[in-house]
Design goal:
25 strands; 32% helix; alpha+beta; five-stranded antiparallel sheet; 16 helices
């Protein structure tokens, strides 16, 4: 095998757009005076990490992947997202982690950046459980090694080499043997790209930059450590490599900025480009700090400055983006920097624990909730007025007599949980805790009512006392639709054979061929003016199937009805109509058209005859499918009597 690759880092691992931070205060009659912004607190940093992780969780595709560029850089962004979520504290048992790993195993990476991120992710999840995959991918990675790492048939560069070293560092941790000659070549390659002043370049003759200086330090440090561990580095090599690291860190300290990737050779000549690589550069700073254990670069506290900048520039939805968009990689880099992902002492971070509700003395009763799946609910307090009204005379201060506590969906009024009380005795310190599990991810409005037995009651009267309504954001649900999608990986005849695909029209890059590429992050969509859209499949060899599965075009968590969605389709097989079928693509899964029997298909056509209207004005009128699959399931024969 040979590793394939193209400029993956420029597409998968990009930094954010320009946004120069300034804070000014002015007074009447005086010129504005620059003010030093307050440092980010640990609570603000933790909140930024959680918001970034939450954004990534809500942007996972139905098949378990994340955009962008899955067509060219298979599993690169998915591996990076998984690694980020695990570092952020999402437990390995979380459905998003399991779905993402399922995608990686079904779509193994082929190129350096993708392999490195996937190796990091599986190592973080469970190195022994996924040892076979890690070893296989590392073997592929080593096929791309010369002195450094390269794209097949193209040049080596320091950015690729940095990620190759990160993956091989995992091999060393797992005691998977790496030939010391490989490490020596990597060490020499990295040091050859260093200028006398300490800066590193992308390739010989390329400009110096902050991101490449961070990459060069990482390469030299990782290779040096591996050679020292194997007792294969001479005393001279040990001195010169240590000096190279020191000079590089000193250069970073002298040129440390946060709002762009420093590039002294071309400052102000290519500002937009260097601002695009800002977060990629910041993640490079984190690696240098983590690998070398240095709090200061020169006299500068790199982490505090990076944390201050990232907390201030995070968007409301939890992202860090670039002037090209690219929220997924940018957000990963931001979280990894704040989390100090490379530091050996970072350890495992407690899982993100969302808390809701609180005590309000003005309310008759208050509730709290924490968690996700399950969601734990409890009564946290009862007002003095309610106690005064309903505590029995000889039980003052001991609590109410309660028949039960009911937790309910405030929108549907469905009872989620009932916790029985004891109407014969006061409840004391009992919080009436309950755990509930939702069937689908989303935001839920939940309330509680306490059914109180009033003073001196003899008629079994129930007095309802209501708490406030809380809104809980539930995400850790492995839905039946998601399980089905994972189980059906690779089963479609249209992705396992050559198929000619035609459509009535195409919308930009949403080509017809993307409806059968095995990826839900891309798909076919018709032109906006196409009133009678259709898509047709003609396999080179006839294929058999019993079920046609349709996956909706991806919808964001913020705009679930962004596009039009098909509601009725006309199916034709081998030139004959098979009728009009209702399809429900409003949920989080697929819609299925069951064929009456096992059918041989030489040609299949789907015409969208009815659709629901999208809510995003620029995309209203555009409709299509992320995936169209032909699946052969076992047909159970009726037993003869």
């Amino acid at each position: 095998m040979h590793l394939h690759g193209r400029a993956c880092v420029q597409r998968i691992f990009c930094a954010t757009a320009a946004f120069v931070l300034a804070a000014f205060a002015s007074s009447e009659g005086a010129s504005a005076v620059a003010q030093e912004p307050a440092h980010a607190t640990q609570a603000q940093i933790d909140d930024a990490i959680d918001r970034g992780a939450t954004y990534l969780l809500t942007r996972q595709e139905l098949d378990g992947s994340w955009k962008p560029d899955e067509h060219r850089y298979v599993s690169g962004q998915t591996g990076l997202s998984l690694y980020t979520l695990l570092k952020a504290g999402i437990p390995r048992s979380h459905p998003s982690i399991q779905r993402g790993i399922g995608f990686l195993r079904a779509h193994p990476p082929r190129w350096t950046y993708g392999i490195a991120c996937c190796v990091l992710a599986l190592h973080e999840a469970d190195p022994e459980l996924y040892r076979a995959e890690i070893e296989e991918w590392l073997e592929i990675l080593l096929e791309a090694h010369g002195r450094g790492f390269s794209y097949p048939g193209l040049h080596e560069d320091l950015s690729l080499t940095q990620y190759g070293c990160l993956a091989l560092r995992v091999a060393e941790k797992m005691e998977i043997g790496v030939n010391p000659k490989v490490w020596k070549a990597l060490l020499d390659y990295g040091m050859d790209l260093q200028h006398e002043n300490g800066a590193f370049t992308y390739r010989p003759g390329s400009p110096r930059s902050g991101s490449m200086t961070a990459a060069g330090i990482a390469v030299v440090h990782i290779a040096r450590d591996a050679l020292l561990a194997a007792d294969k580095l001479s005393a001279r090599g040990e001195r010169t490599s240590a000096a190279a690291i020191d000079r590089g860190v000193e250069w970073l300290g002298q040129h440390l900025v946060m709002d762009h990737n420093p590039d002294p050779d071309q400052e102000n000549k290519n500002a937009g480009h260097m601002q695009r690589w800002r977060l990629y550069y910041l993640y490079g700073l984190e690696r240098v700090g983590g690998l070398t254990g240095r709090k200061l670069f020169g006299t500068r506290d790199w982490y505090q400055e990076a944390a201050d900048f990232l907390v201030r520039t995070q968007k409301e939805n939890g992202t860090w983006t670039t002037n090209y968009g690219e929220a997924h990689p940018g957000t990963c880099f931001g979280v990894l920097v704040l989390r100090r992902a490379t530091a050996p002492t970072s350890g495992s971070r407690p899982p993100i624990a969302r808390a809701y509700g609180g005590d309000d003395p003005a309310r008759a009763a208050s509730m709290r909730a924490t968690g996700d799946t399950p969601l734990t609910l409890w009564i946290s307090s009862v007002s003095d007025e309610v106690r005064e009204t309903h505590e029995w005379d000889d039980e003052r201060g001991k609590g109410l007599r309660l028949w039960r506590v009911e937790y309910f969906d405030a929108d549907t009024q469905e009872i989620l949980a009932t916790i029985p009380g004891d109407p014969e005795t006061p409840h004391g310190s009992d919080r009436f805790a309950a755990q509930v599990r939702m069937e689908q991810p989303g935001k839920y409005r939940i309330g509680a009512r306490l059914l109180v037995r009033p003073i001196d009651d003899v008629d079994d009267e129930e007095v309802p006392i209501l708490t406030q309504t809380i809104e809980a954001d539930v995400r850790a649900i492995y839905t039946p639709e998601q399980k089905t999608y994972q189980a059906e990986f690779g089963q479609s005849a249209f992705t396992n054979t050559a198929v000619k695909i035609r459509a009535s029209s195409e919308n930009g890059g949403r080509a017809a061929a993307q409806a059968a590429d095995g990826l839900t992050c891309y798909g076919w969509a018709c032109a906006k003016e196409d009133a009678e859209p259709w898509i047709e499949f003609e396999p080179r060899r006839p294929q058999r199937g019993t079920v046609i599965a349709l996956t909706p075009i991806w919808r964001s968590a913020d705009e679930p009805e962004h596009w039009d969605q098909p509601t009725k389709v006309r199916l034709s097989i081998n030139g004959k109509s098979r009728g009009i079928h209702d399809v429900d693509l409003s949920g989080s899964g697929k819609a299925y058209i069951e064929l009456a029997k096992r059918t041989t298909i030489r040609n299949m056509r789907l015409e969208i005859v009815e659709r629901s209207g999208g809510v995003h004005a620029p995309d209203k009128g555009i409709v299509g499918f992320a995936e169209v699959e032909l699946v052969l399931r076992e047909v159970k024969k009726a037993r003869r009597r």
